[in-house]
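ok so heres the complex, two chains, lmk if somethin looks off
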Amino acid sequence: EDQVTQSPEALRLQEGESSSLNCSYTVSGLRGLFWYRQDPGKGPEFLFTLYSAGEEKEKERLKATLTKKESFLHITAPKPEDSATYLCAVQAGGSYKLIFGSGTRLLVRP
Amino acid sequence: GAVVSQHPSWVICKSGTSVKIECRSLDFQATTMFWYRQFPKQSLMLMATSNEGSKATYEQGVEKDKFLINHASLTLSTLTVTSAHPEDSSFYICSARITETGLHSGNTIYFGEGSWLTVV
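and the predicted structre for the whole thing:
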C-alpha cells in the first residue's frame, strides 16, 4: 500500500533558525512528489513538484530535495510568515491522484 | 501559478437540503479535477476524481449518491451534497491538474481556496 509519512508533526523555530522537514514515502512507481503550504482555513498552496531522485528545487527560503525513499524541505533563515502547515504528497503508478502525508505544523517565532 | 477558484467560500444550509459547490480552473483547461474533504487539524482526504465528460471515480467509503460530482467542461467541476446532514459539515477543497511540457514534463495540481459547509 502506498504510504506517506511526515515528520515532525510540529516544529517550533526561532526566526532565522534553519531546519528541515522530512517526508518518507513507500510507493509503487513514483510519478511525482509534491510539497504544499497550507494556512489555516485555506486551500493548499503549491510549492514544488519533484520527479526523480537527486532533483532539487528552490523558492525563496525553501529548498526541496528528493531521494528514492524520502524528500526534505529545507527552510533557511525562516521568518514568522513562513508559519503554516507543510504538506507532502505523492502520485504513484498510473494514477494522478495525490496521496497526502499528515503534514508538519511549523511555527516561527519572532 | 495557475488559479483554481471555488464558490461559495462558505455556505450554511438546513438539514435535508442539497448544496452545490463549484470549482473552476480560471486560466487553464483541466481534464482532471479532484475533490477533497478536510477535518480540523487533519490532512486532506480524497473523495473522488472527476474526469471531464465521464463519470467520477469515487474513493472507497464515499457515497456517490450523496456526493454528486459533475465535470461538464474543461474548466468546471461541481460537487453537490444531497440531503445534507450535520455530519456533512466540513471543509471541502477541489484541485485541478495541469499538464506541463518541456524538459521536465509532468503535471502539477493546484488547489482552490476551499469551501466551508455548515449544515444546521
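quick notes: The first strand of chain B starts at residue 4 and ends at 7. thats all i got rn
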